[in-house]
Design goal:
Layout (H helix, E strand, L loop, with lengths): L6 E2 L3 E5 L5 H7 L3 H7 L7 H19 L3 E6 L5 E8 L8 E6 L8 H15 L7 E4 L4 H9 L3 E7 L6 E6 L1
Antiparallel strand pairs: 1-2, 2-3, 3-4, 4-5, 6-8, 7-8
Helix pairs in contact: 1-3
Length: 170
Amino acid sequence: MNKYHLFETDRLWIRPTTEEDADFILEIFNSPKALRFIGDRKIRTKDDALAFIRNRTLKQFTELGYGNYTVVTKGEGAKVGVCGLYKRPGLELVDIGYALLPEQEGKGYAIEASRAVQQAAKEVFGLDKLCAITHPENGASGRLLEKLGLKKMDQRQLPGVEGLSDYYES
């Protein structure tokens, strides 16, 4: 997988998600906040996680060169979250998104990883504008997006997403 970009910050490695991350993907997408704010991806088993990685993550990396990255601490090598650039149905712009394990929240990892991915979007992938979507009740995510310089534009109904999502653009 080394043909794809790896990014780093002072504290983090941000590397492409691969099949070796299946157990982590299973855990993170079944955390209470992920289920509430991102939605149920129907990842119930390690095989489901492998299929998700193969059919979505690796497929997007192959097609576009970017996708979902696993966020790993430099010191301990602990997988703490995901952050990435996503081409989503119903969105014209590429979407920046992130999720952390509950026990890793409040340590600044989401903003640190998101800033690195946002910078890579522009400098490496030539994406001048990004968008983001959040659940209307996820105030912390909205504040993080505003710190990244994105502005709330409106609410949108997206394919496969229950209810309206707050929509942001840079």
